[in-house]
Amino acid sequence: MGTITKRETGYLARVRRKGHILSRTFDGRPEAKIWIGQVEAAIDSGYYRDDTQARNTKFGDLLKDYREKVTVRKKGAQREALKVRRLERQPFAKLQLSELRARHFIQFRDDRLASGRTPATVRGDLAILSSIINHARKEWQISLPENPLSLVKKPSVRNARTRILKGQEETCLLRAIEPRGQDGNKKPIGPELRWLFILAVETGMRRGELLGLDWADVHIKESWVTARDTKNGDDRDIPLTPAATEVFREIRGDEINKKGRVFNLTGNAVTWRWRYALERAQALYIEDCEKTEIKPDPSFLQDLRWHDLRHVAITRLAEIVPDTLELSRITGHKTLAMLRRYYNPHAKDLAVRLAQRIAARAS
């Protein structure tokens, strides 16, 4: 049997059983007695787990340890580290691990949504928190009865994008990203963005995949490249269209045995150049409208992101590569559902193709 000793600070309960030596202080004798009974029963049944570390570790310290020991080894470590640092400043970070309850994260979720954060952002925060707790339980063997995040309902996300290039948008963008600028602008962007833009809409490669390309993985003669810096971690061989192949020839120039990275730009550099290119393209569009006395379309190049170029590419590739399996090998999608999110043809274009196929069948 366990023992209970009265102390100035409360009642000290001790358990010595099957190699376990445990103790805990309680305000009252009844609570101490209940704890002794529960611990002894758990030890006898083989289900006892020592929660000392969970009671003596603050969640904020766990978050910091995860950021410094696990996050640093991940792809996209810098972005995740910033998120974890922000989570370290939340009220629940001051709690011991044993004190964490679902209500703490429900309150966090509701506060984030009320502050204007998107459901996708909040889901991402909850996912990181859940992953950290699971890692602590499995890899660091910190005893917790459950992951409290498993009891928290995640916000619904309905942010599937269908944005692709339309009308004159592609033409104006290509004019805007000419190395010297056809509009006479004194601040040229340089050729890199034009190369990246063409490759993005011709191949469907992500920005990180393009920036991670090495000349050793570019096979111009056979018109294919190997993307190694992929989102899912798997290498992917991607066929090149004639236009994409020509871009690589232009980048390589006369240096046949070129080595090293194809592009020497960072993701942030592409982001800033892209924003500037959008501004220039919109200005060019306004000038064209004024010359032709046409009312400008207020939606021109609005809400267009770099990643939308992947939607453009996959929508176009789907017309050339009708086999879904072959298309998924090019795009790197693991499931048909994810591939379908990136195939965004306009109903007008589908109607034209439908009419053409009906006419062909009738003839």
Spatial extent as radius of gyration: 29 Å
**With helices defined by DSSP (H or I, 4 residues minimum), what is the helix count?**
15
CATH class type of the largest domain = Mainly Alpha
> Can you list the strand order of the major beta sheet?
1-2-3
The total domain count is: 3
Task: Describe the protein in words.
It contains 15 helices and 6 strands. With 363 residues, it is mainly α. Helix 3 runs antiparallel to helix 4, helix 5 (102-114) runs antiparallel to helix 6 and helix 8 packs antiparallel against helix 10. Helices cover 51% and strands 8% of the residues. The strands form 2 sheets. It has a 3-stranded antiparallel β-sheet with strand order 1-2-3, covered by helices on one side. It starts with a strand and ends with a helix.
Tell me the layout of helices and strands.
Blueprint: E1 3-7, E2 10-17, E3 20-26, H1 29-45, H2 52-56, H3 59-69, H4 77-87, H5 102-114, H6 119-138, H7 169-176, H8 191-203, H9 207-211, E4 218-219, E5 224-227, E6 236-239, H10 242-252, H11 267-292, H12 308-320, H13 324-331, H14 336-342, H15 347-362
Antiparallel strand pairs: 1-2, 2-3, 4-5, 5-6
Helix pairs in contact: 3-4, 5-6, 7-11, 8-10, 8-12
Key terms:
elongated, mainly alpha, single chain, three-stranded antiparallel beta sheet, 363 residues, 6 strands, hpI Integrase, Chain A, 3 domains, 15 helices
